[in-house]
Amino acid sequence: MTSTHHLRSVLGAMLIVVTILTGTGCSTTDPATTTLRTRKNVLSLSAQERADFVYALKKMKTVKSPYDSSMNYYDQFVYWHLKAFYCMGGDMSGMYPAHQNPGFLPWHRVYLDLFEQALRSVSGKDVTIPYWDWTQPSSVSTVFAADFMGGDGDPSQGYAVTSGPFQKDSFQVRIFDTDDIDSIFDDVDTDPNPVPYLVRAFTKFKDSSVVLPNAAEMEQTLNIATYDSAPWNSSVDSALSFRNALEGWRGTRGDTCEDGLMDVIPTPARRSQQHNVVHIWVGGVVPSGGKVIAGNMTQASSPNDPVFWIHHANIDRLWSAWMKRHGRTYVPVSGGPMGANLNDVMAPFSFKTDGKNTPASVTDESVLGYKYEVLP
Known about the structure:
The protein is mainly α.
């Protein structure tokens, strides 16, 4: 080796060392993020990854909940979501901060992380919850393929799901909406005789139909600069609330259960057609024999349908994307609904000993050990 070549080699080695020590150079890799789990787009999953996720979901049904031994681990999460709609003493002061308020996004972030950890624990597999980007038309056939979520319901069997790993007789539904829960849905009362299997009625909403969100609607929502605004509920103008635009509520949220909490009827005037409308698109609401059949995704017990998890992973991803554009800001600091203020412990997550159970503690998803494959 010539002296010139030797000098270049030495200088090159020194440059590599300096780059590593100082963090300068072309690489933007942060060593602290190299071990983060990656939640992938469903379109990126390999056949084995799809199979592992399905296996973990079904395994959850066979393991007792560590929080309540009277139910299985999967149903524990369904129960928590159902309970988030319970009205305590005729008002909403005792409800979980899971919907129609600023806590919607941090509550579901903690909830999904707990579920993801449970999936990994019971299955022994290195799984994460993939996200369903419903703005990609090609995603529908992948999500509802026979080796993943299965297909639409069969009208001849009361819209029961009859294909895929979660079909009738293969995935039992045990947690149901009650009459008290039904009353919070305007004109969407569920079947008084619930069935122990998944029900879906794609796109159907009574005498109309709904469509999945598109990229332009998603972009419009991500460009809303304010996380949320007073009065911190479903009545806030979505132009002043990224949270409400993403969640998709319209109308006034009353102060009591009797006032009615939800308006789930899609209207063309709505700014956003995202979180709520995807629930409706999958579950459907179908008049049948003088009653209404509401699919599982249309109900308060919507996590009964495994599609819930990949849908909400995308909602969480969009929150991450919003913060990348507008900063890791959260309001209200105080004065908002119980559990939804910046440093409030969100029920029922007080059992978490790591302190990651307040909105302030989870505005950065990496503290929970994961990241998303792509942010819009």
